[in-house]
Amino acid sequence: DDFGTGYAGMGYLQMFPFDKLKIDQSFIKRMNHSKHALAIVRSVIKLGHELGMTVCAEGVEDEQQLEALIVGGADVIQGYYTGPPMAASRLKALTGKQDGRATERRTAKRTRRKLENSGQTT
User: Fold this and answer.
1) Which CATH topology does 11-118 take?
2) Which is catalytic among the residues 50, 58, 63, 104?
3) Cα gap 58→74, rounded to integer Å
């Protein structure tokens, strides 16, 4: 959790058998304004995948961040852009779904189509 900050450094990736990597929101927040932050996020996503991990980006607050993360290959998105924190029971009531993935695939597909139409995909 919060990879890249505090005590969540790269050395721990060798010491423990993690299967998930969560990129701290401080990197996500800077992506729109800093090519360095964007490069770090993309590199961490690639590193996580190379190590066989699912990569989660936390603190996603706008469509520009979402688009960059989808293009970059993030597996999971967390943040107010997709909805505020809530209990699983509340999410189930809102979506009518058991697993809480009501809009995940539709949002990703819509964003990918938008990027393809604008020529931004790699």
Assistant:
1) TIM Barrel (3.20.20)
2) 58
3) 10
